[in-house]
Amino acid sequence: MATETEGGRERARDIETGAQLLSGQLGKTVQRLRKAYNLSLSELAEQSGVAKSIISQIERNETNPTLATIWRLSQALDISIDRVLAADTDEPFIEKISRPDTPILLSDDGRMRLAIIGWIKTVEWLQWYDVYSEPGGVLDSDAHQRGSVESVSVIEGAFEVEIGGVVHEARAGESLRYRCDRPHTLRVIGDTPGRAVMVCILKAAVMD
Q1: Is residue 129 within 8 Å of residue 150, measured between CB atoms?
Q2: Which of 25, 117, 123, 204 is the most exposed place for a label (fewest CB within 10 A)?
Q3: pLDDT (tens digit, 0 to 9) for every residue of the chain, 208 residues total?
Q4: How far, rounded to the nearest angstrom, does the alpha carbon of residue 19 sit from its chain's CA centroid?
Q5: Hey, is 23 helix, strand or coil?
Q6: 69 near 45, Cβ under 8 Å?
Q7: Side-chain half-sphere of 28: how many Cα atoms within 13 Å?
């Protein structure tokens, strides 16, 4: 009987340890995705229907959320629930991300779409996007942290970047690299759609 009791206690400890590890990974994932979308806790709470205090506790690994809560957060963050719950040790060396699992950002005018193709774990210092835009699409961006650098490599069409009243253009095969620690605007010029890859390095050395 004592052996069975000890075995039950060991299983209970294993379950509790597993729950804590899963909860910790969930918190990190939610926080990374929230920052990738530039969402505050209040904004994510409004979009998901999960209380701001609960989201904060999840990110700090202070609570074990219900499956319903995890589902609401996954819907708001546009990622499948199994991806949210995946633990670091379970991730394969080669990772394939399907189209439905690729988060999408839209410009205010709805004409420019940025698919987040970068690794979510690097979002706090390195971000990269697959950019597609209809003709005339405009993306206005606030200043990133000081020293940040952005690069736009044009694949199709033509883009222009405006910073502080200075405008530069780039066409297919060309790239624009610029400081993005001040308000900046990306536009597609001409009558054809634009396609580009955008990379943003946060906390980069200040450009001369």
Answers
A1: no
A2: 117
A3: 445 565 555 554 544 444 444 455 778 888 888 887 778 899 999 988 999 999 998 888 888 888 788 888 888 887 766 666 665 544 455 677 777 778 889 999 999 999 988 877 677 788 899 999 999 999 999 998 888 899 999 999 999 999 989 999 999 999 999 999 899 999 999 999 999 999 998 865 444 4
A4: 25
A5: helix
A6: no
A7: 15
Phi, psi angles (nearest 5°) of residue 23: -65, -40
For tokens 């396609």, the residue is 195
CB atoms within 10 A of CB 161: 20
Structure tokens at 125: 């210092």
pTM equals 0.58
CA angle in degrees (0–180, nearest 5) for 131-39-43: 130
- Take residue 29 and report the two structure tokens written for it: 């994932």
Q: CA distances (Å), 175 to each of 88, 97, 151, 158, 208, in order? A: 35, 26, 7, 10, 18
- Map residue 162 onto helix, strand or coil: strand
